[in-house]
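Milestone M4 deliverable, item 7.
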Amino acid sequence: MSKGKLLLVENNATFRSFLTAELSMAGYSVTDVGDTERFFKALREDYHHVILLDTGMPKMDCVDTMNFLKQSQILSEVIVFTDNTMIENALECIKLGAFDYMCRPYPLKKFISCVGKAMEHQQSKVQ
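Output delivered:
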């Protein structure tokens, strides 16, 4: 049985595949997308408990995305992952309601733990 549904938004195919495999092994059902069009399609098609959002997506500003999620009343928790050059955007996402952010490189164990905490927080809101 799945621990919950995740939407992984990452344009680097190798990293996306790696994270998808690791999160799946951790017990999550993962939908992974690598571009803006597939992201919005995945949002329309299914509800995801947690959205894992890369700040470096081409044609997709993470702050604008957070505003869209908020205006659309999408209740998913959001974890933003970034590198040091985009930290200000990640902090702005936190102000807009993102659950947390992770700065690359981060230990996989810490990342999966953060996903678990976001999942628990999201599920406690809907009960």
